[in-house]
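Morning - adenosine-5'-diphosphate inputs below, output right after.
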Amino acid sequence: MFHILLKLFRNHITMPDVSDGQILEALKTVKDPDKGDDIVSLGMVSGVVNRNGNVGFSIEVDAARGAKLEPMRKAAEDAVIAINGVLSVTAVMTAPTATPGAAAQSSSGPAPGQNPAPRAKLLENIGAVIAVASGKGGVGKSTTSVNLALALSQLGHRTGILDADIYGPSLPLMMGITEKPDSPDGKRLSPIEKFGIKCMSIGFMVPADTPMIWRGPMVMGALEQMMGDVDWGNLDVLIVDMPPGTGDAQLTMAQRVALAGAVIVSTPQDLALLDARKGLNMFRRVDVPVLGIIENMSYFLCPHCGERSDIFTHGGARKAAAQMGVDFLGEVPLDMAIREGSDMGRPIVAADPDSDHAKTYRAIAEALWNTLGDGASRPSAPKIIME
Ligand code: ADP
């Protein structure tokens, strides 16, 4: 405990940035006891994530060697925690699943000497998996994800929502979910159903007051389990609320899931838009279609007089969308009712489905659905028009 506090203190003063290269260098000091070589050269390390000094990664091993290699996993954690700037480390061991011999891949591509064949995609029986992303935190991405998912459900689509933010899950709070998921067969978890949609979040398993550094954040492994080991059933659409930024979770999703596309949420401020552009370009680089941009906190509607104020330079996202050649899916105002709803576990679309805000979200959901086109990724569900 003490050494972590000391590290927190030290890092607070110096705030050193830790690069993936430093992490991999440290991991090169850890050897596979059976193979003799280090775990990086052997291509066993994948999904390195570093969020503000909280580092996670997977070490891929044969299932049969799992128990025996626990000291190696621990040594890998110890090697990384020793880096100045690292606050917490979680290494998980994963066993290869679908393609025997397929390499664990780091974010920078297949490891040397490894077979680059992709592993089987996750969530294959879901009609359309849509990642909702933003370039930075606090723009209302989770609020938008939740209300969008509820709106899609109200339009008649079988809908789920996956909270992919391992470090800062917000789904339990936003959906007012306090129970833990069941596992009827002891192998797969059942998602929790609320307001008609299926929900999964790491926050269902970890108490909300557990400090993040104790949570053992492990993006790849946890994210893959929340996709592969959850009984999502047959869904038309799964909304994935991505963690902010352009890191490995985004890459994991792009590599492991046949995404129908990504939606970028942005506030109108230029800065946020610059971030949004980064998010957008990131998805484009990995060949994930960007389905459109939603402008959140677009303008302010006075709850007393009803007057509209464009407190930020309104319209920036629409312009940016046009410049970048992606659809503009709609704008959501800054409004107390939206904030209260999402912070009190009663999202506005579920709590007040006849409100103007709910209609706005449904219009965005419809615009989004229409961008999916008639391709294979789009299931044929009956469309119910809500007025
Ligand atoms: P992110 O997922 O981007 O970090 P959140 O969805 O958690 O952002 O939103 C951050 C805060 O802003 C929350 O308190 C949320 O209730 C509030 N919020 C989000 N969108 C709106 C909105 N359109 N109007 C008012 N408050 C909003």
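Note: The chain has two domains: 4-105, 128-372.

O.
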